[in-house]
Prior knowledge:
globular; seven-stranded antiparallel beta sheet; Jelly Rolls
Amino acid sequence: MTTVQHIDQVRAIFTPDNSVTLKTVTDTFFPDLDKDFPDFKDHILISQFFFDEAWPTWEIHPKGDELVMLLSGDTDMILSNEDGSETIMRVSTPGEYVVIPRNTWHTARPFTPTTMLFITPGEGTLNALEPNGDPV
């Protein structure tokens, strides 16, 4: 049965056969993904996040590109390059999006309260306090 959902409460997950599984957001949502879906292999997470401060960590997705679309707000998406330099992309108009290449450390620093939509290949995702740092 098809029902209306809200992305703040229920996230959509594309499975390897391209069907959609719905998962309620809980305090253990992210740890549960690896348990509920075998290491999240070949799955794509559709999610939305609000943030009004710089992300406390960097993240990387080794199994595919991530699409990040601005819904509201104004933010810099910062990508760490292999040579240690950074590429900063200002995303300030709703509907603008950035494709984060596979295996690229990235973070965000908002100028105003910001909401973004994320289409993420989640298998192997890591978070660290700095690019190439120890996972947190």
